Amino acid sequence: MKRFVAAALFLMLAPVPASADVTGFIGVNGTPTKRAVKGFAVGTGLLIVGFEAEYCDTSEDLVLAGPRLRTVMFNGLAQTPFPIAGMQFYATTGGGFYRESFSTEPNGNETSFAWTTESSICEEAPDTPPCSGSTRGLT
Length: 139
What we know:
It contains 1 helix and 6 strands, in the order H-E-E-E-E-E-E. The chain is mainly beta and about 140 residues long. It has one domain (about 20-125). It has a 6-stranded antiparallel sheet, with no helix packed on it.
């Protein structure tokens, strides 16, 4: 039984490449306090262009004054259709809305626009999915 539990934990916790058109996620938002984050993303990609929509909800922390934060983002991606000299070039941009609120302050809500932009070069490495090392920044 211990081996089964150990194997199950290993399979659940081992990192694997993601490849899906619908992705659910959980995580941690560390500012200003550590709070749970949950959400989902839906995307599609063609040879040169791709699109993604994402919803994310960060829970409120009443004790340490961490606001609830909800975001809705839409992104577009353009990339080279194949690697050039072992590298694939791409750029992504998008925007959306966020809403920050405290349940204890009815008039303490903030809703605004946020945008993302990134350009990158992904180096193809043996036995890894394309662009497995890319990162995305929020501006």
